[in-house]
Amino acid sequence: MSETVLRLDGIQKTYNPGTVGAVHVLRGASLPIARGEVVALVAPSGSGKSTLLHIAGLLDTPDKGVVEIAGQDAGRLSDRARTAIRRAEVGFVYQFHHLLPEFSALENVMLPQQANGASARRARDRAMELLSRVGLGPRAGHRPAQLSGGEAQRVAFCRALANAPKLLLADEPTGNLDPATADQVFAVLMDIVRETGLSALIATHNMELAARMDRVVRLAEGQVAAEG
């Protein structure tokens, strides 16, 4: 049986509970992702996909339900232990790269490693390895403002993968790019994911990109369902 890297079971989340303005975002959402599986999450704006990704990545907590990462039930762990899992096992990529503007591409990829205890030399070697893999070795010393949108997003991928996580969570990772650049950047992402055996949950509006993943699921009315 394949190892389950992420298991969401019965996730519920309501904002402003007990008020007239209560918003029931997730209503029992469940989703397992196996090791090495790449799943596309298709959802309209405002449906709760970002909330689901934040809960899956331990950036937010559900009102009810189970979040299990690499066999560990996050609901039974302390905040410190949850943070340790998030740093070691989960990588995030967003629509906008969110690179730190005062640091170079190399330094941006080094930072999460050093925050996780890696030495400067080890972090630098790992960062250069990743940047070279996505064709940005010669641009390692450039700051985000000196990079194109596609280049900056590739750096963001490298940063997300810097600590060799088991799970990658991506929220519209190519949504801010033109179609041609989006296709190129997505191809780079998929190459890295396949090479490393990562599991990934990638939210996208682009059905052409979604079709290139292993499985497509839809978030609607607070629940996750397989795409027909």
The SSE string, one letter per element, is EEEHEEHEHHHEHEHEE
Second CATH tier, the architecture: 3-Layer(aba) Sandwich
The DSSP helix count reads 7
Rg, Cα atoms, Å: 17 Å
Task: Please list the strands of the largest sheet in the order they lie side by side.
Answer: 6-7-8-3-9-10
Low-confidence stretches: none
Number of strands: 10
Output mean pLDDT.
Answer: 87
Which structural category do the helix and sheet elements fall into? alpha/beta
Q: Name the overall outline.
A: globular
**Total domain count:** 1
Question: What would you note in describing this structure?
Answer:
It holds the Pfam family ABC_tran. Residues 6-228 form the ABC transporter domain. This is Lipoprotein-releasing system ATP-binding protein. One of its GO terms (cellular component) is plasma membrane. GO terms for molecular function: ATP binding; ATP hydrolysis activity; transmembrane transporter activity. This protein has 228 residues and is of the alpha/beta class. It has a single domain, classed as 3-Layer(aba) Sandwich (Rossmann fold). It is built from 7 helices and 10 strands. It has helices at 49-56, 79-89, 105-115, 120-133, 149-161, 179-196, 207-210, and strands spanning 4-15, 23-34, 38-42, 64-69, 72-73, 90-93, 167-171, 199-203, 215-220, 223-226. The chain has a 6-stranded mixed beta sheet with strand order 6-7-8-3-9-10. Strand 1 (4-15) and strand 2 form a beta hairpin. Helix 3 (105-115) packs across helix 4 (120-133), helix 3 (105-115) packs parallel to helix 5 and helix 5 (149-161) packs parallel to helix 6 (179-196). The two termini are 25 Å apart.
